[in-house]
């Protein structure tokens, strides 16, 4: 294991299992201190984490009892859809671990996108007026996107306003996502990065010229002290 300090946060170079163990340890530490909120992510790596967490029983009883589970971004599809990020969390981990229904907070995808975002934001304001997730888990796309902040997304640069909103990703439909304002209110952020296909994106975010519209992951530079990238050797090869 090695740690690299970059302009976008600390990159920890780990194997996949080491990354999963690191993430589970962070969740357990939060739960040990009391109730906490975790924003999960979509993608193949989080799905692999769910299976690993169930198999290894790495999450503590306190994590199962005290953590409120969310997703940092979501597709506007039913939870039963194979495209639903929260649906994958339910089927891959939450059901298997016996997480209580009261600890599950999916986006209200039964509503139209903007209505769903407004309802989710309103619920957050009621529960937590000044803070978003205690731990926000993100993935990294080959195109440098994080959450549903895609290259040239009009939300990039909007540092105030709602913490959660809807955006129409050209060619990919409507998404519900945490915003820059929401990321600013997260106590900690972990980005899971795996594979050589992500190496160029990670380098551009960590060391490239500032161009967040082209490399949305660069928005995390503003929060570098609270951001940890859990990357395998292939993803970190160009750093």
Protein topology:
Elements: E1 2-6, E2 9-13, H1 16-33, E3 36-40, H2 44-56, H3 61-66, E4 67-71, E5 73-75, H4 85-97, H5 113-127, E6 135-139, E7 164-169, E8 173-178, H6 180-184, E9 189-193, H7 199-207, E10 227-231
Parallel strand pairs: 2-10, 3-4, 3-6, 6-9, 9-10
Antiparallel strand pairs: 1-2, 5-8, 7-8
Helix pairs in contact: 2-4
Question: Would you kindly provide a written description of the structure presented here, covering whatever features stand out?
Answer:
By secondary structure, the protein is α/β, with parallel strands linked by helices. The protein has one domain: Rossmann fold (3-Layer(aba) Sandwich), CATH 3.40.50.1360. The chain is about 35% helix and about 20% strand. It contains 7 helices and 10 strands. It has helices at about 15-35, 45-55, 60-65, 85-95, 115-125, 180-185, 200-205; strands spanning about 1-5, 10-15, 35-40, 65-70, 75, 135-140, 165-170, 175-180, 190-195, 225-230. The strands form 2 sheets. Strands 1-2-10-9-6-3-4 form a 7-stranded mixed beta sheet, with helices on both faces. A 3-stranded antiparallel beta sheet has the order 5-8-7. Helix 7 links the parallel strand 9 and strand 10 (about 225-230). Helix 2 packs parallel to helix 4 (about 85-95). It is globular.
